[in-house]
Amino acid sequence: MENFDEFDDYRDRISTIGTNGKRVWVYPKKPKGKLYNYRKITALFLLAFFFLAPFIKIDGEPFLLFNVLERKFILFGFPFFPQDFYLLVPVMIAFIVFVVLFTVVYGRIFCGWLCPQTIFMEFVYRQIEYWIEGNNKQQRRLDLAPLNFNKLWRKGLKHFLFYFISFITIVWFLAYIIGMDQVFRIFTADRGSNLALILGVVVFSGVHFLVFAKLREQVCVIICPYGRLQGVLLDRNSIVVSYDYNRGEPRGIYKPHENRATAGKGDCVECSSCVQVCPTGIDIRHGTQLECINCTACIDACNGVMKRMNKPQGLIRYASERSIADTEPLRFNVRILLYSFVLLGLLTLTGFLFSERTELEASILRMSGTMYQEYDAQHYSNIYVIQVVNKTRNTLPVEIELIQPGGEIKMMGGELNIEKGKVGKADFLLVLDKNVVKKSLTNVKFRVLANGREMDVINTSFVGPNSLDRP
Ligand code: SF4
Ligand code: SF4
User: Fold this and answer.
1) Of all atoms in ligand 1, which is nearest to the CA of residue 283?
2) Among 326, 364, 450, 464, which has the minimal tally of Cβ within 10 Å of its Cβ?
3) Last residue of a domain, one of 308, 328, 357
4) In this structure, are residues 409 and 432 in contact, taking their beta carbons and an 8 Å threshold?
5) Is the domain of 422 the same as that of 315?
6) Residue 111 covered by a domain
7) 365 and 226 in one domain?
8) Are 328 and 381 found together in one domain?
9) Are strands 78-80 and 72-75 parallel, antiparallel or unpaired?
10) CA-to-CA distance for 291 and 364, rounded, in angstroms?
11) Which residue CA neighbors atom 2 of ligand 2 most closely?
């Protein structure tokens, strides 16, 4: 086991751990190319959404809110209540199945294009690093240089900006929990009474800073559970960033005027451009590896080389291991179509569950500990409590109608108006003719109306005297 050759060595340790067991710092070259531009647009859109969403309000309520402490949740302007948590089970199951199927078919596309870790690392922090410390070679030279004024101000400014952005990001995360108005108050007028919270933000900003200043690709390679799952989720048919070894091998350096086909060389010119741009420091020519986050930087780099050599692009491309081995183009086979169909079905189911969610939730229960009352010589009465959750964005006037049997409802405490996003309660009497109450428990059916529209039908019971107590 001592003499690992170049091709076996990568199997025994991750790319960022050296043979001495120490961290190998990655200095990726700034990528450029078509896919990088698309990723940049995607990242800018997602970052804009992240930073703008806390300012968006619909009818005075935040567009998104995840207030775990007060159990108040608003998704895309729609308030959700603990009563809606039954939706969580099917949605979570759909989400897990979705993640598994999506990864089986499309590999780690999420990691490269949508993951917040990649977006912040590649399109925020790394950009600042290129701006202050220069390209990958200049960064390496700066790290090796002794401490001098140049190194001090560049490192100082970079880390200051890193921490500042981390602080802003954590403040924005807080805005998603308690709302931007509240955050603004905490950091301005109410600073004195919120020192512990402000200290918490400072500490979390420090953790965030360390993730992007120090941990970096280690999050994707070692810490992220989704990354760890790849080993069991990917198979030979999964679409991943792949090197076409049938076309590229045997690799050999480029020599002008040489006919590579006659010289028995494949299309890979051993320029190592694909390795230089890789943010996790791997060589994709070894095949799919756990470190690969499918960022496509190597695709762009290799396509640039192929273009200069007048060769077709796609020596590194999105492909399945099987399509590369069988030298077949990637086709949308039955399996991919079937899985995609299931994914679409799950998305539709989730959308359906949300659309079926009622805007008003009502319950009517007999007041606990009460029995029937002799209302007058001809009538019995029961006391009920109606509880209504108003999930709309408007105040709702709520009414109750008795569907069966015939009788009379007498509200206690006036009309029932429930404010938006609030839970309201009221007591009422149900008065039934003694002739109707023939058993100790009589079935009754109520209709709950809001703004004159039927919102719910509730079945419950009316307590009357049992046969021994009857006159
Ligand atoms: S960029 Fe392309 S040609 Fe250059 S080493 Fe990588 S695979 Fe080979
Ligand atoms: S191998 Fe290519 S796709 Fe994978 S992480 Fe490296 S540069 Fe990105």
Assistant:
1) 6
2) 326
3) 357
4) no
5) no
6) yes
7) no
8) no
9) antiparallel
10) 57
11) 298
Q: Is the dihedral of CA 65, 70, 72, 73 positive or negative?
A: positive
Give the structural domain span for 248: 15-357
Q: Is the CB of 240 under 6 A from ligand 2?
A: no
Digitized pLDDT (tens) for each residue of the chain, 471 residues in all: 334 345 566 777 788 888 888 899 999 999 999 999 999 999 999 999 999 999 999 878 888 988 888 878 888 877 777 777 777 777 777 778 778 878 888 888 889 999 999 999 999 999 999 999 999 999 999 999 999 999 999 999 999 999 999 999 999 999 999 999 999 999 888 878 889 999 999 999 999 999 999 999 999 988 998 888 887 888 888 889 999 999 999 999 988 888 888 888 999 999 999 999 999 999 999 988 888 999 999 999 999 999 999 999 999 999 998 889 988 776 666 777 787 788 788 788 878 877 777 777 888 998 888 888 888 888 999 999 998 888 777 788 888 899 988 888 888 887 888 887 788 888 999 999 888 888 888 889 999 988 878 888 899 989 888 765 555
Domain boundary among 323, 357, 391: 357
Atom of ligand 1 nearest to the CA of 298: 1
Domain total of the chain:
2
* Predicted TM-score of the model (pTM): 0.81
Please tell me whether the peptide bond between 250 and the residue prior to it is cis, using omega within 30 degrees of 0: yes
Domain match, 301 and 381 both:
no
Inter-helix orientation angle 225-233/88-106, to 10°: 60
Closest ligand by atom to 109 CA? 2
